[in-house]
Amino acid sequence: MTMNVLALVGSLRKGSLNRILFNAAVDLAPPGMTISEFARIGELPLYNADHDVDPWPEPVLALDAALRSADGVLFVSPEYNYSVPGVLKNAIDWASRARPASALRGKPSAMMGGSTGISGTMRMQYHLRQILVFNDSPAMPQPEVILPKIQDRITDGRLSDESTRALVAKHLAAFQTWIARFSTP
């Protein structure tokens, strides 16, 4: 059985270093796991309770359907102002709305990220873990992929540092086990 993982990338920038990290995750996924991106994150309207009525805006319906069909969610994101980028928080806000329950409720999750500075997204990941508690989305605790100075690990638009690639592969293998832990037979 193949595990389907939905990735939410927290950067809209074409040349995003975290998109390069996401691409590496797709390449390094263990056998039996596929990772696909919800590529329409930038199309989601800003969450507004006035729009939280039937029917939801079409991009929100697409996000909800993608999350519900996924076995797990992989967040790949930079850190903005010591926290979660607005585009990612907005997607989580929409996903958390009850229909009849949050699409994230009970959905195993993992996170990874890199930054050009020395903190490597540790504060973003801490805040993301707090946000996921509300959604009862069990966040995998270890191994962490917190990559400082990610630009030094990339060559020609590809994650090239072998020790970092090994860490990402280890993270994804652990995520596969994490997802299985919460799957119903």
Task: Write a structural description.
This protein is α/β, with parallel strands linked by helices and about 180 residues long. The chain has a single domain, classed as Rossmann fold (3-Layer(aba) Sandwich). Helix content is about 35%, strand content about 15%. It contains five helices and seven strands. Helix 3 links the parallel strand 3 and strand 4.
Mind sketching the topology for me?
Layout: E1 3-9, H1 17-28, E2 33-37, H2 58-69, E3 72-76, H3 86-95, E4 109-114, H4 122-134, E5 145-147, E6 154-155, E7 158-159, H5 162-182
Parallel strand pairs: 1-2, 1-3, 3-4, 4-5
Antiparallel strand pairs: 6-7
Short descriptors:
two-stranded antiparallel sheet, alpha/beta, five-stranded parallel β-sheet, 185 residues, 5 helices, Rossmann fold, globular
* The named CATH superfamily: Flavodoxin domain
Total helical elements: 5
- Mean pLDDT metric: 95
CATH architecture: 3-Layer(aba) Sandwich
Tell me the helix content.
25-40%
Shape: globular
Going by helix content, strand content and strand pairing, the class is: alpha/beta
User: What does the main sheet amount to?
Assistant: 5 strands, parallel
What is shown here, in short?
With 185 residues, the chain is α/β, with parallel strands linked by helices.
